[in-house]
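Narrative summary of target 7.
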Amino acid sequence: MTEKELLAVACEQFLGKNVQDIKNVVLQTLEGHLRSILGTLTVEQIYQDRDQFAKLVREVAAPDVGRMGIEILSFTIKDVYDKVDYLSSLGKTQTAVVQRDADIGVAEAERDAGIREAECKKEMLDVKFMADTKIADSKRAFELQKSAFSEEVNVKTAEAQLAYELQGAREQQKIRQEEIEIEVVQRKKQIAVEAQEILRTDKELIATVRRPAEAEAHRIQQIAEGEKVKQVLLAQAEAEKIRKIGEAEAAVIEAMGKAEAERMKLKAEAYQKYGDAAKMALVLEALPQIAAKIAAPLTKVDEIVVLSGDNSKVTSEVNRLLAELPASVHALTGVDLSKGPEVLRVQAISDCLPFLVCLHFLFSTPCPHFHCHIHLICLFYSHLPVCLFF
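Modeled conformation, tokenized:
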């Protein structure tokens, strides 16, 4: 039943009654059910199993009180007693049994306690021995472990020391590497500075020396180019001048050649017309040139020494030269001067006379020790070299 249904039934059953009346109705109902249940149980069951007894009362009485709108939530047996002390006597016997069992239990407990104590002591000793053994083993293991740890610690310490030294060496190497890099950077900067200085010096050299030199060279080159152009122009002008002169000279020579050819033609015609007299005239005309060619080597003589002791002999030598002149001319040209007209012979002698006079003057002058030093000065007179000796 739900709470609303129980409430409706309760109102129906107990409406108009007070609380005490309600309690009495419920109590009487429970007592009736309690008595009915007690009739089904023994005294020992009631005394010894109170919880079961209370449970049976709740199960039997619950439907009846429920029809009155009441629900049993809890039912407890507080005490069980009787007027003839049956339950008390039963309790004493039970108490004695319990006491006996308690004593036996105590003795057994003490016995078991002694045995257990001995076992415990033995176990304690065993445990202590095992503990001591374990302690010894632990100490031995500890010492071994300690030695191993010490060895490991020493190894680790040595490794750490070696690692420290290696790390120190690496750090030193790293520091040295960084120093080298710094030195390299400084050297690069120094090289850059030197390069800048070289560049500055080069620029200064260019500004102070090379450019002025280039300017001077350019100026000289321009002057040279101008001089070259000038010389070329002068050379061209000179060449043109020479060409003009050459052309003029060629024209003159051509004209002179033509005139000479005409003259020679006329001479040839005259020579053919006049015969031997013409030939003799031609030879006489060439005599001064022949005498000049003969006397030409004497112009290169610095000093001539003539040894002679007789002035008359020199005069006779001159006379001999005059006498032999026609024969010499005849031997050279084939023309006999002795057979020519008188006027031509006189002309030949007159042409050679200056040369002969010089010889006479030379050799007729007194000279100590029968010799003289002759200095020659060549003079040209009428196309004939006149030699003055002094």
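Residues 359-390 have pLDDT under 50 and may be disordered.
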